[in-house]
Amino acid sequence: MGYYAKFRCINGCEERELNEVIYRCSKCGSLLEVIHDMNELKKKSADEWKKLFKERIHTTHYPYGSGVWNKKEWVLPNVENENVVSLYEGNSNLMWAKRLGEEIGLKDLWIKQCGITHTASFKDLGMTVLVSMVNQMIANKQNIKAVACASTGDTSAALSAYCAYAGIPCVVFLPRGKISIAQLVQPISNGAIVCALDTDFDGCMKIVQQVTEDDTIYLANSMNSLRIEGQKTVGIEICEQFDWEVPDFIIIPGGNLGNVSALGNGFNMMKELGLINKTPAIILAQSEKANPLYLAYKNGYENFKPMQAQKTLASAIQIGDPVSVEKAIRTLKQFNGIVEQASEDELANASARGDRTGMFNCPHTGVALAVLFKLVEKGTIKKDHRTIVISTAHGLKFADQKVKYHESAIEGITSKYANNPLELPADYNKVYSALMDKINKS
């Protein structure tokens, strides 16, 4: 069948081909989105799509075993299979947070573990699509010399891994001294050209946009809507994992805000093609130190103003001038959206509280959990509401931060759930006495 997708200005000004090096509308300057030939997709029934996706999951028939590429017709039909760059991303665990749910009075709380993927963050989902399109362009003899991104850590890790797999040069711009060692070492290990700049993410973003004015260096940040096509599979997977039932609430942490519209796009597509008959409410969680959309939400989105983001433990969302804000606001308005914030103390302790029930959370998931706790306390989220928290990265990327938390060594944070090793002599009686004391207090 002739499945096909194009770029379209979000204001409808123009349409462009996906192999064009373009990131904004040439007429109005707004971001683009990827649109699909829905009439062609509707030639399959909803049941036929469900059956096809189920047959492909986890197979070794490349690239369809991937959680992104098993929905290739919905994501990027324009690329030939031989040019797909996939590390079998997606298909991530949907964890029933039974114990944490019981603690806060929810019986249907789930964590979508998007950090359980190749580079340990959800960014893999979008990067496989973008790098595949670049690989197709190179195969078609277009002059693409490298792919570049600005990053707070996870985007650079994903881009460098997929470019390394494809043999495409990669350039990443990082804010010097503002990301974890685990995040910094990933692009270094994958052979990327790493530029550590004396600025924050917003400053890196300005530089990469200037660099990619050279059309031979392709921009990989989420203002490139190819990324959104991969990331929209998160919502599709959630419904698939619930046998196509739709949750009531989805809570997602947000910085550059591409993930908000990605979630919305996935649900809109499922609904239009008849796989679902309703949509969830989307809740955006922001750090109090980088909360421009929260401030705009409090004023009915009337006066969105970029801000100078302050240092936050949730470093990946330390963004004061998000490029995807226009798309995010549009999506939140459509999906009964709520925007809430979390302080540093709230996010650190929410992350640790979740860890005490079997998770190992990144600080951004801590922001989402803190917002969850607030909305349950307010009564917005009630006992029977099926609620999904999107965990965006693996906690191991932030092990140094977790150590400091448990040592009560993070300034301004009261570590309510600190848990340090018992340092004891190798003496049975002293060990047993200390153990019994600890167990009795727990």
What does this molecule look like?
- A 6-stranded mixed beta sheet has the order 4-5-13-10-11-12, with helices on both faces.
- The protein starts with a strand and ends with a helix.
- It has 17 helices and 13 strands.
- α6 links the parallel β6 and β7.
- The mean pLDDT is 96.
- Helix content is 39%, strand content 14%.
- The chain is an alpha/beta fold.
- The chain has helices at residues 38-41, 46-56, 72-75, 98-104, 123-139, 154-166, 181-189, 201-211, 226-231, 233-241, 258-272, 292-298, 325-334, 344-355, 363-378, 399-406, 428-441, and strands at residues 5-9, 15-16, 32-36, 94-96, 109-113, 146-150, 170-175, 193-197, 217-219, 249-253, 281-287, 338-342, 387-391.
- The relative contact order is 0.12.
- The chain has a domain at 94-120 and 228-406: 3-Layer(aba) Sandwich (Rossmann fold), CATH 3.40.50.
List keywords for this structure.
13 strands, alpha/beta, 442 residues, Rossmann fold, four-stranded parallel beta sheet, six-stranded mixed beta sheet
Spell out the blueprint of helices and strands.
Layout: E1 5-9, E2 15-16, E3 32-36, H1 38-41, H2 46-56, H3 72-75, E4 94-96, H4 98-104, E5 109-113, H5 123-139, E6 146-150, H6 154-166, E7 170-175, H7 181-189, E8 193-197, H8 201-211, E9 217-219, H9 226-231, H10 233-241, E10 249-253, H11 258-272, E11 281-287, H12 292-298, H13 325-334, E12 338-342, H14 344-355, H15 363-378, E13 387-391, H16 399-406, H17 428-441
Helix pairs in contact: 5-6, 6-7, 10-11, 11-13, 14-15
